Model the fold of this input.
Amino acid sequence: MELFAGGVSDSDRVFNGLTSAIDEVLGNTTLPASLRHEVLQMAVIFVCGISQLSPGAYFLRHDLFPSIVTTITSPDTEQFTFEAALLLALLANFHKSDAAKLNPYLRCIRETTNEDLMRGICWAANFAAAAVVRAYQSISDDSSPSLTSTFGSLLSALRPDRALAAKPVDPPRELFKNQPIEACVILLPVFEFLHGSATFRKVFADNLTAHVEKKTSTPIPPLPITLLSLTSYLVSHASSSSSSRSIAYANLALNMLLVMSESDEILSALRADTNEEIRLCRQRLPPLPPFQPPKSPLCALLDCCILWLRHNLHKRLEVQCYLTCIGATYRVLWFLQREHVRLEYHWQELWRALILLLDFLASKLDSLTTTGGVEQLTQETLLLIDFALCRSERLLPSPQTVHELVYEVVRSADVFRKQQALLDKLANPHVDTHKRHSGSRPRAPQALANITALAEQYETKLKEAGVRSANQGLRAVAKEIEKDGLSYGTDLHGTDDPP
Done:
């Protein structure tokens, strides 16, 4: 205030004048578009510069929402939608955590029904997100294997630094240290509208539904598909460097997946098969199987969750991001079994990623930088696996996929046996037992008991059968299930949608 207004006593006059001038210029369609653009850019820079400091309160007193909407929906300024949407998201985040009810922009996002505004934001976000994806792809070509790319890989393998490598290696992490590019900030307004606006969720879902009904691929896929592609790159490279920026964007992308998974409207749109190829990140090893249309985009959403689970297991564990990822995965699986959708998917990759997480937590607990939230993460992951086993016949598309799930649990029996010791170690003896096991947490010990009982039951039978290989083990599990059916423990998940 000293710098801009010369003192607190004159701040009202200066900052009220500034916000009024911005409002008048942005909302005046008779002024030149270039002038309105310059004022918009100045407003974005100013709001970024003051961050959460007190001058931001003047932008709450003077509601700029109508003039920002005018900027996005006017034909002569719609090309500046990126900056306008960003300004709106920045203002919506001013003291969001402690004064959200006082923020008029959050209320406006929640209450507006202007579909032209929503479509404009989707249009701008799609181009910006596609640019971020191309920036990742320009560093390392991860397109699906072809004759040309296979020959290129052969030549690359003959390089002196790779010729003696026993197995393929990831591209050097420092190549991605400056990623994502600045355009990725478009995720902030997209998240705010997805989270706060039912109208935007409808437009977002309709964007995909209309595209699927055309049954053809297009040069620029719809926003939901582009966001899934972008998310795959963000979560794959989130911890490639020590940059808190890359982690922050991955966290934002995961929260966006969680919001999508909480919307039946969006999940229903993602459920339908699309002929559009969804380019998912294959720059980290081992790569997931490529997305080959026609296929449901829900497969791509689950792939994004797997990529996060696989590639971010470090001593400085991002526990909250893992909880968000597990939550999104659980909600997708819940939707599938509730709607009786048996998704054709590489389910084994998901089960292995979840078990890998549990094994990491049990084995590396003492070396983690922080253990805050690890107990909850362990419990939620156990509940997710328990849910998949309990509802497997309604969730999985074939007996073979059920057999594969059971076999993955059986071959990881030692991992599950370590979980009880992990939970006992993490439990705080100074916290009242009833409080510690409030909400959904009392179910976790029973879920672990269900899983362990199943694993030990089939483990004993495999030992009796003298199984010596994975193929023999899978066949033996299949034979037992086909003979006696899958007998599982208590169903802990009820019929109500998850919270």
The chain is about 65% helix and 0% strand.
